[in-house]
Amino acid sequence: MLQVENLNYWYQSKSEPLYEDLNLTFDEGKLYGILGSSGSGKTTFLSLIAGLDTPKSGDIYYEGKSLKKIGLTRYRNECVSIVFQSYNLLPYLSALDNITAALEITHSKKANRKEYALEMLQKVGIDAEMAKKNVQHLSGGQQQRVAIVRAMCCDARLVVADEPTGNLDEQNSLEIIRLFKQLAHEQNKCVIVITHEKEIAEQCDTVLELKSKKMHVIKSS
User: Fold this and answer.
1) Could you tell me the pLDDT band of residue 176, with boundaries at 50, 70 and 90?
2) Rg (the chain; Cα; Å)
3) What is the pLDDT of residue 87?
4) CA distances in angstroms from 94 to 29, 150, 220, listed in the order given
5) What are the pLDDT digits (tens) for 31-72?
6) Closest of 94, 84, 97, 96 to residue 135, by C-alpha
7) pTM for this entry
8) Residue 163: pLDDT above 90?
9) Which of 152, 164, 23 shows the shortest CA–CA distance to 86?
10) pLDDT tens-digit map of 78-91
11) CB-based contacts of 173: which residues, under 8 Å, 6+ apart?
């Protein structure tokens, strides 16, 4: 589904490249975990495959088409759902309205959007009463779960997440990873999770580590 070809990237303020000629393939129906030390470029890599930034050289293909040809705005709206580390929820809406708004913006084919959104929120411990609260009245961990559900509910076949369990306890972290697995295995989506937690990475089908400007496969199943 997603192919990274001869990818190179560097920050303008630094002479050292962050990556050198990365070549990777990500398939549908799989959950991927990407590990790496702080500053290794994990979040920047997610920005590139999510169409939020562009490589300095090389290319990224979605279903055989270059992101440049698809157009980054169209790609972000139709092809990929993103779970941001900073949540990026609409602060003036409730948890429920954040999800239904995303379903409307992405032209989701889901019927009964409100009921579907409530059902998905329930799966991560956000009940109907809590779902109707303004997101600013929710805790950081609750907001993170809303952001994760928002990405899961949309029809995009590629889901990318930046440290999605960072503010969650162990029980909720495992529940989120279980839902990501369901997305990959039952809905045949490609799910890519950036994490620093080895326990979370171990739950993934394939684990890659970003180290010394290269991406190494350390687990594959």
Assistant:
1) confident
2) 17
3) 78
4) 32, 12, 40
5) 999 998 888 889 899 999 999 999 999 999 999 999 999 999
6) 94
7) 0.86
8) no
9) 164
10) 899 888 877 789 89
11) 165, 197, 200
Report the alpha-carbon distance of residue 189 to residue 1 in Å, rounded: 9
β-strand partners of 62: 2, 65
**Containing H/E element for 161?**
strand 158-162
- In whole angstroms, what is the distance from residue 195 CA to residue 65 CA? 28
pLDDT at 13: 67
Copy the structure tokens of residue 48: 């590139």
Residue type, 212: S
Q: What domains can be seen in the chain, in order of their start residue?
A: 1-79+159-221 (3.40.50.300), 82-155 (no CATH)
Angle between helix 170-187 and helix 140-153 axes, rounded to 10 deg: 0
Number of other CB atoms surrounding residue 170 within 10 Å:
11
CA dist., res. 219 & res. 221, Å (int): 7
> Higher-confidence residue: 183 or 137?
137
Nearest to 99 by CA among 27, 63, 151: 151
Q: Does 103 have pLDDT greater than 80? A: yes
Specify whether the CB–CB gap between 79 and 157 falls below 8 A. Answer: yes
- Measured in residues, the chain has a length of 221
**C-alpha distance from residue 1 to each of 24, 25, 63, 84, 159 (Å):** 11, 8, 5, 21, 12
